[in-house]
Amino acid sequence: MSSVKDLRNPLKRARGLGSAQSGVGHWWTQRVTAAALVFLAVWFVVTVLGALHADYATARGIVARPWNAVLLVAFVLTVCWHAVLGLQIVIEDYVHTRWKEVALLLLVKFIAVLGTLATLMAVLRVALGA
User: Fold this and answer.
1) Contact between residue 92 and residue 72 where contact means Cβ atoms under 8 Å apart
2) Are 78 and 33 in contact (CB under 8 A)?
3) 19 occurs within a structural domain
4) Fewer CB near the last or first residue (10 Å), C or N of the chain?
5) 20 pLDDT exceeds 90?
6) Which CATH number fits the domain that encloses residue 111?
7) Do 30 and 24 touch, CB atoms closer than 8 A?
8) What predicted TM-score, i.e. pTM, was given to this entire model?
């Protein structure tokens, strides 16, 4: 009977490389955000279609409702988190120059944080009546 260690590639054994122990957590997080996005996206589309022909004051009133503001914040956070997770996998798999990989990962995270903060600020400004 062979052990699991014997099934590894000899080069991998020599370098001491193995699992980073974070793949399952990343996978689960991406699946949970995807499942949440199913419900949040349906709510978002229904809300946007409901406000499609509304004037500015009515659309602002729709966003200012407490549940709509909370769901909009949840939608934006979930979209950005899910996008960062997906783009991270793509970048790690297809960008083979280390400095480009790190630069792209930082850029993606920076844009996601910037977009999230801008959206949160806008929603809070409308919801709190500022």
Assistant:
1) no
2) yes
3) no
4) N
5) no
6) 1.20.1300.10
7) no
8) 0.80
Reduced 3-state DSSP string for 63-109: HHCHHHHHHHHHHHHHHHHHHHHHHHHHHHHHCCCHHHHHHHHHHHH
Q: Which residues contact 110 (CB under 8 A, 6 or more apart)?
A: none
In a domain, 66, yes or no: yes
CA 30 to CA 82: how far, in whole Å? Answer: 6
CA distance 89 to 64: 36
- Give the pLDDT band of residue 129 (cuts 50, 70, 90): confident
Q: C-alpha angle with apex 31: 98 to 103, nearest 5 degrees? A: 20
Q: Please state, in angstroms and as integers, the Cα–Cα distance from residue 86 to each residue in 80, 83, 94, following that order.
A: 10, 5, 12
Percent of the chain with pLDDT over 70: 82
| Residue at 18 is within a domain | no
Q: Tell me the mean pLDDT in the region 88-117.
A: 96
CB 62 within 8 A of CB 50: yes
Q: Identify the CA nearest to 66 among candidates 113, 9, 108, 123.
A: 123
Q: Could you tell me the residue range of the domain that residue 96 belongs to? A: 27-128
